[in-house]
Amino acid sequence: MKIAVLGTGEVGRRLATKLVSLGHEVAMGSRTPTTPSSSSAPSRRPAWSSRSTP
Q1: Gap between the Cα atoms of 23 and 1, Å rounded
Q2: pLDDT by residue (tens digit) across 21-50?
Q3: Domain definitions of the chain by residue range
Q4: CA-CA distance, 43 to 52, in Å (whole number)?
Q5: What is the pTM (predicted TM-score) of this model?
Q6: Contact 29, 47 (CB under 8 A)
Q7: What residues form DSSP beta bridges with 29?
Q8: Alpha-carbon distance values, 34 to 1, 8, 26, 37, 43 (Å)
Q9: Which residues does residue 3 pair with via DSSP β-bridges, in sequence order?
Q10: CA distance between the termini of the chain
């Protein structure tokens, strides 16, 4: 399932990490595109990513 997580803070990152580990495709969004924590998203990609992507 494709899921979007809005928020790249601690809760958003943990939630996205768990969803990816369960096999879902996760995209993360942030209020501020230059937020440093957005680069530490589980998929490390701005677009849809699957759990097979490092």
Answers
A1: 8
A2: 999 999 999 887 765 554 454 554 445 544
A3: 2-40
A4: 9
A5: 0.59
A6: no
A7: 6
A8: 27, 11, 19, 9, 17
A9: 26
A10: 18
Torsion-angle region of residue 45: left (phi > 0), alpha (psi -120 to 50) or beta?
beta
3-class SS of residue 25: strand
Rounded distance between C-alpha atoms, residue 9 and residue 1, angstroms: 22
Number of H helices, E strands in the chain: 1, 2
Residues 24 and 4: their CA atoms lie apart, in Å, by 10
User: Residue 10, class by beta-carbon neighbours within 10 Å (0-12 exposed, 13-18 middle, 19+ buried)?
Assistant: exposed
Please report the beta strands in the chain, taking only residues with DSSP state E, as ranges in sequence order.
2-6, 25-29
Cα 34 to Cα 40: distance, rounded to the nearest angstrom: 12
Question: What is the C-alpha to C-alpha distance for residues 52 and 45, in angstroms, rounded to an integer?
Answer: 13
Which tokens in the block code for residue 14?
Answer: 């943990």
